[in-house]
Amino acid sequence: MKGVLVAAATSLVLALLGTPWFIKWLVKKQYGQFIRDDGPTSHRTKRGTPTMGGTVIVGATLAAYFLSHLVLGTWPSVSGLLVLFLMTGLALVGFLDDFIKISRQRSLGLRTKQKLLGQGLVGVTFAVLALQFENAGYRTPASTAISFVRDTQFDLAFAGPAIGLVLFVLWANFIITAMSNGANLTDGLDGLATGASTMIFGAYLLIGIWTSNQNCQTNPGLKCYEVRDSLDLAIVAAAGMGACFGFLWWNASPAKIFMGDTGSLGLGGAIAGLAITTRTEFLSVILAGLFVLETLSVLIQVSVFKTTRKRFFRMAPLHHHFEMLGWEQITVVIRFWIIAGLFAALGLGIFYAEWVVGST
Questions:
Q1: Which of 131, 188, 202, 249 has the highest local Cβ count within 10 Å?
Q2: Is 0.70 surpassed by the pTM of this model?
């Protein structure tokens, strides 16, 4: 628990104090956000606001994680390092996207194929490595079994290890791409994605602590969890939560800085990595329910428009629809935070209920 507290406190302080310094540096370099002309008119006042703030979130998370292990005098776990690799790798893809936008003063950065290729390279590397590094209990950071609250009986390796590896890589990359793009779509209003991510990391912090206390390696039992490095994953989640909290001070309305694709892709990657390594892949759909709703709104909008040439929503993603209805931005953000909190609470409730029911 000491490591969790150190990670959360360190990342919070680093993000809180480091963000204003980064804002000054971005302003000096004139690295400001380019705003689409077809978006809500209220957003045009944000033109020129510093972006790429996700650099601070990722940097604070990494520094807090390693400082936590330095204080504890322990080595980082493979699971923790893999999740941080996924977070940093996708953040780098987002950074390239952001840099192209601000350097060329346009709303489009990397092309869709380029972004997907970058996400794919990072995701494939993560997925392949996650099935390696067995510990003394013959457990790897991830499993080829599809998971909900824990691994289910449906194993992708049903046709052999080679087929299982290929199917797992595809499955893991679907989760990674969906979660990172969901976070990216949600990041459209001041503090919206940051606040939602804070709640999701908080949920994974609790899941990591619980699965550590009920782990098959240290506390075997009927409903113990086959998660390899539970407590270290809790440290990763604590570092991410603290970094988001600190950044939110400056990102909340009216935002002094935006996280950009650097932050949204990185945060989505970290959440996907936690879902895979804690064996809660389908549960993450509930925990990150707001991201799912935002993504579904875009899919519905595109599908309906292609079919009927009419718009289902006034504008997608979903938060823009309510803006177009006349809601104030801060009202949309707070109500969506409430929705995000309800989803996180529902996911934790399901997680705990499964253990209670299975233990009685």
A1: 188
A2: yes
